[in-house]
Amino acid sequence: MKHQHGITIWFTGLSGSGKTTISLFVKKELQAQGYKVELLDGDVVRQNLTKGLGFSKQDRDENIRRIGFVANLLTRNGIIVIVSAISPYRAVREEVRYKIGNFIEVYVNAPLEVCEQRDVKGLYKKARNGEINNFTGINDPYEAPFYPEIECFTDKETVAQSGAKVLQKLEELAYIDSRLVLK
Description:
Layout: E1 7-12, H1 19-32, E2 37-41, H2 42-48, H3 57-76, E3 80-84, H4 90-100, E4 103-109, H5 112-118, H6 123-128, E5 150-153, H7 159-172
Parallel strand pairs: 1-3, 1-4, 2-3, 4-5
């Protein structure tokens, strides 16, 4: 078993930006090298831990706080925690960052048009037709991070290129061994 220090890698971005795809890539790479990793995906958490919360600003903030609470527990116990959640509001992301401490913010940046093209569930179309209220990027704001540690441009980068940025940052901060980083 590897000796490792816990850290939370928080992926934020619009729906369809590529957060889950990159998160799964990073998780697979880390696990292949023997690291203990947990993925907290926003959709999965909403079905289980935060079921019953809506999409008002207050409920969204509470959702992120709950995810942050679990991430903090895991992080302080030496787990590499990957969070993939839209987390649209900057203030609550900063609140969670402060509470966790060992925290890297990854802004998964994709233009709204690209996210809409990738939308297999048809959520953007429903939001534009008025069938969904408070949909981030359409009728609810997304507050991009001012200074994320990593920014992935998923309309211009491959999943491997974006994932490599995350792995390189983990190496730079001495959370993982250098031999893991993809070149």
